Amino acid sequence: SRAGAVLSGLAGAKIWLGWQKEIELLADIAYFTLTTLSGYQTLGEEYVNVIQVDPSKRKVPSLRRRAVLVALHTVLPYLLDKGLSLLEQELEAASSGLQVLHSLNLSGLQNRALLRSWLQKRARRLTEGQRSFIAQAVHIVKQSIPLLRRLHLAVFYMKGIFYHFSKRTTGITYLRSVGFTEDDQSIRSSYRLLGIVSFLHLGLTLGIYAYNFRHRQRARKEWRLHRNLSHQMYKVWIFFYVQGM
């Protein structure tokens, strides 16, 4: 946020809004490079007296494991979000026969232009049915990512380990530099209760999604039936009109 405020003050709000995610990504990479990747504690880890350890829980993670952790935690979510959004735009543009316009301010980076051009060529080669299927799959993936994060967070509340996907993937956990106290046990009980509430809320959200999906499917079927019926009625009207002439 501080990096964004500085850039907004120097370059203007327009450039900041256009490059917000990239600036946040660079800020996160710089922060974790100076802390986790360099073998130091983050501010939060230092505040609660914890250190990162590898799956053996006997030594700190290796440099390669820490590098994978930082990449999964910062770069992968950015690439996934950008890739899915760009693919969705190109599929919509190919279906409508339009070409996605590029912003003129600093958006002509060669790698981004090459990726967009590659996606445009692939999207135009697909049939309408294939584009519709892939677009629906992309929409489902984008909707599923927040739900998976909430599910992972609920599991963390119940188990107390692996707050992020990146830590679960690399097997990096925390080890307290001081022993457990009675307050820690009460905190764990509170987190388990929070985990139960999170699971219930997630189940309710999935139920709402399922209901809305069924409602949209039924509305789509009714619309198709109404369209076919209207088309048939139009044919009948034309037939009697011609016969009357």
Automatic annotation (TrEMBL):
Domain Pex N-terminal: start-end pairs: 6-216
Transmembrane segments: 191-211
Catalytic activity: S-ubiquitinyl-[E2 ubiquitin-conjugating enzyme]-L-cysteine + [acceptor protein]-L-lysine = [E2 ubiquitin-conjugating enzyme]-L-cysteine + N(6)-ubiquitinyl-[acceptor protein]-L-lysine
Enzyme Commission number(s) from the entry: 2.3.2.27
Full protein name: RING-type E3 ubiquitin transferase
PANTHER family to which the protein is assigned, alphabetical: PEROXISOME ASSEMBLY PROTEIN 10 (PTHR23350), PEROXISOME BIOGENESIS FACTOR 10 (PTHR23350:SF0)
Keyword Phosphoprotein listed: no
Compartments, as annotated in UniProt: Peroxisome membrane
Pfam families in alphabetical order: Pex2_Pex12
Family statement: Belongs to the pex2/pex10/pex12 family.
